[in-house]
Amino acid sequence: MDNNYSPVAVYPASRCRLCASRRRLSSGGNSSPHTASCRLCSAMVSWIISRLVVLVFGTLYPAYSSYKAVKSKDVREYVKWMMYWIIFAIFTTVEVFTDMFLCWLPFYYELKIAFVVWLLSPYTRGSSMLYRKFVHPTLSSKEKDIDDYICQAKDKGYDTLVHFGRKGLNVAATAAVMAATKSQGVLSDRLRSFSMQDLSSYQSDPVDTDSGTTQPAPAQHRTRSMMRSKSESYNKATS
After folding, report:
1. Whole-angstrom Cα distance, residue 61 to residue 116?
2. How far apart are CA 61 and CA 67, in angstroms?
3. How sure is the predictor about 231, in pLDDT bands with cuts at 50, 70 and 90?
4. Most CB atoms closer than 10 Å: which of 50, 69, 111, 214?
């Protein structure tokens, strides 16, 4: 490693890390990393500028102009901005795929900026021209099929939602019943274990509750016999 290597020299504050890596790679005498990193920096800058242009001039400015049209109740402005929003929705949908497959083309982001400006310009009226020549005839010829497809999609979506909703409720109810049954079985087993334990302790170690002392087995047997005979005599007397 070179002793003159300095992080400040390689990563100056006025340059990004990508440019610093470019300098470090190009110091070995190879010009291909230098060119590749320059292209990458240029693509990143073009992407940022294109996103800002689309956001400001393609979305915010038309939204404010649409608000002004609604406020003034100008029918011509209504129609103008409605045509623009239809074209912009199609552009946004297509942009998702072109950004994935065509972003490597030279001047791709610059062409996007130029297209948005062309749509908005009052001199070119690109959105009105595209709508009147391409979008309106196509939608007019396919309008019935599109409406039928939307109705079918709504019905199927509603039926699917109801089906999965009922299935989810059944699963939740089954889980609740199983949890209640399991908890009831655990509780009954616990109570049964307590009662059997108390009975076994009573049989193994009987206690006289009056005196607090343990009686011998013969005395306990005589006491039970006397109580049984008294109960039998009382039953005979009452009968």
Report:
1. 12
2. 10
3. low
4. 50
Q: How many CA atoms lie within 13 A of 176 on its CB side?
A: 6
Please report the pLDDT score of residue 167 as a whole number.
80
pLDDT in tens, 13-37: 334 444 444 454 455 444 455 566 6
Distance separating alpha carbons of residues 166 and 35, to the nearest angstrom: 61
Cα–Cα distances in Å, from 199 out to 192, 210, 225, 228?
11, 19, 21, 21
User: How far is residue 130 CA from its own chain's centroid?
Assistant: 37
Backbone angles phi, psi at 106, to 5 degrees: -65, 140
Q: How far apart are CA 239 and CA 237, in angstroms?
A: 5
Alpha-carbon distances of 35 from 9, 24, 40, 128, 175, rounded to whole Å:
20, 13, 9, 42, 63
CA 199 to CA 220: how far, in whole Å? 17
